[in-house]
Amino acid sequence: MRNVLAIAGKELNSYFTSPMAYVITAVFLAMSGLFFAQDLNISQIARLQGFLGASSFLLLLLSPILTMRLLAEEQKLGTLELLLTAPVRDHEVVLGKYLAALGILLGMLALTLYYPLLLILFAQPDYGPMLSGYFGLLLLGAAFLSVGLFASSLSSNQIVAAVLGIGILILLWVMGTAGNLAPNLPLVKTVLEYLAISSHFSDMLRGVIDTKDVVYYLSVIAVALFFSTRSLETRRWR
Amino acid sequence: MIDVQHLSKHYGDFIAIEDITFHVPKGEILGFLGPNGAGKTTTMRILTGYMPPTSGTATIAGCDVFFQSLEARQHIGYLPETVPLYSDMTVRSYLGFQAAIHGLRDPRKRERISDVIERMRLEEYADTIIGKLSKGFRQRVGVAQAILHEPDVLVLDEPTIGIDPIQVVETRQLIKDLGKDHTIILSSHILPEVSMVCQRVIIINDGRLVAVDTPENLSARLGGPERVRMQVRGPAREVAAALRDVGGVQSVDWEETGNEGVYRFQVQCRAGRDARPQLAGMVVQRRWDLLEMQALGLSLEDIFLQLTTHEELPVHA
After folding, report:
1. A41-96, pLDDT tens digit by residue?
2. Most-buried pick from A110, B95, B133, B160 (CB within 10 A)?
3. What is the number of domains present in chain A?
4. From the candidates A15, A16, A85, which should be mutated to test the interface with B, based on the most B CB atoms within 10 A?
């Protein structure tokens, strides 16, 4: 665990020594703020749905960019050789890097907390959907980051990693509609709809936290991190 | 300390190393010599646990590098050829990170970091971003991280490549010093360096072990002191004629040195004959002044070329 924290700390540090963390946070805050204000203005309802809904897609685009450096750069610079010959396990490397990215996500979401604060100060919003919405966005973002990290483990080129990550995520996002291609196979349709990453977020937006949605996101994270570890291991065989 | 048995590594059909066996006792500095692409880096990567071998075993301080990889890695300090460092970190924070993942904890961690910074003379640059350091200083940071956790074994891949001549001399001295506390494997294709620093040399070519011995023995086994260089004060022609009469001598050449009356003689003996005692005796007996005498064995370069281009020596592992 100490190794995981050491790696996470080092990664967090380099997020802030490069402009990466600042740029992504700034873009995220500007866009999400815009959607928050627009939704308020149009609907005249004290709610976060506008912000949460738009942020989910924003995070899909930004997460792989946030994670693209994590493993790809180590491979490019050759620093992976020193990291993997240190007495750390491969999954500790993956976990440490993942925690660092998760830290940035938490920070970004924390910076948006003044939206609900404004609503509470000036109106009587419904607390349930706000809480469940934030919880859902966090799970969704955490799943995006794990997939982004996996993409980063596949290539030594950061741009390739980012594009690959965004591609996988968009596929996961629209997978539910792919079920319509097979109208005669209800089972296929159900499975595809369950696998779609977007379908599990809509309930949480409405204030419902279903265990099956939580389990879904945690499973995506576990699988993606497992694949990342495996992909890192194969680096040793090449 | 390091035991390698029948190690092979294949990449598909390509054979990187084949059936390498050697042993390094504690405290030895072993030179790993071979042309580029001979398999030096591959062997080192297997020893450091970066990649698994196709077959064969390697143990570091009794730990198998594959089955007890973490324990084995704890005993190794590694400096890869390219000196890969995180260029966005300062020297001190980088060493802090390396110390942490090697299991060092405060206050020991802080102590070791300031020790290696002092030892590698990095004080002035401790808070500089690594990306701004010159190659020579990056090299020092690389060595610093390798010795940070006081490993039993140091694996140094081409440690003097790409740095200036003064730093090369310093680095060689440093490696000799490190040899007092660590067992060292050092790869190089610079031959004088290996003969200067190492107690034993492994020559590897095309992935196969060609010879293992001390630099002196390698030289002796191949050539012996067949050529002798002497400086004598005396009448050049007479001296040359007298030397030619010594048993086992084939030919004698001579040339002037800058000094009045002093000549340099190059004596070629028959294969396997060491005529040095007789040569010295002859000069002294004739009451000329013997100023200098040197056996010219084959240089490591000659041996290396002989071994890697044609004939093979029987290997004594």
Report:
1. 998 888 898 899 999 999 999 999 999 999 999 999 999 999 999 999 999 999 99
2. B95
3. 1
4. A85
Domain residue spans of chain B: 2-220, 225-296
How far B291 CA sits from the closest chain A CA (Å)? 53
Contact A6 B71 (CB under 8 A): no
Pick from B73, B89, B97: CB nearest A85: B73
- Please give the model's pTM, rounded to 2 decimal places: 0.83
User: What does pLDDT average to over chain B?
Assistant: 85
Q: Say if B127 is an interface residue toward chain A (CB within 8 Å).
A: no
Q: Is B171 on the interface with A (CB under 8 A)?
A: no
Range of the domain at A126: 2-237
Nearest chain A CA: its distance from B102 CA (Å):
6
Confidence of residue B300 (pLDDT cuts 50, 70, 90): low
Residue A137 pLDDT: 94
> Is B52 in contact with A237 (Cβ distance < 8 A)?
yes
Q: What is the pLDDT of residues A8-47, one digit of tens each?
A: 999 999 999 889 899 999 999 999 999 999 999 998 888 8
Q: Is the pLDDT of residue B312 over 60?
A: no
Q: Give me the DSSP letters along chain A.
A: -HHHHHHHHHHHHHHHHSSHHHHHHHHHHHHHHHHHHHHHHHH----SHHHHHHHHHHHHHHHHHHHHHHHHHHHHHSHHHHHHHSS--HHHHHHHHHHHHHHHHHHHHHHTTHHHHHHHHHS---HHHHHHHHHHHHHHHHHHHHHHHHHHHH-S-HHHHHHHHHHHHHHHHHHHHHGGG-TT-HHHHHHHHHH-TTHHHHHHHTT---HHHHHHHHHHHHHHHHHHHHHHHHHHH-
Question: Quick one: what percent of chain A has pLDDT higher than 90?
Answer: 73
Best interface-test mutation with B: which of A7, A82, A232 has the largest number of B CBs within 10 A? A82
Instruction: Looking at the structure, give the CATH architecture of the domain made up of residues B2-220.
Output: 3-Layer(aba) Sandwich (3.40)
B98 in contact with A, Cβ within 8 Å: yes
CATH, domain range B225-296: 3.30.70.260
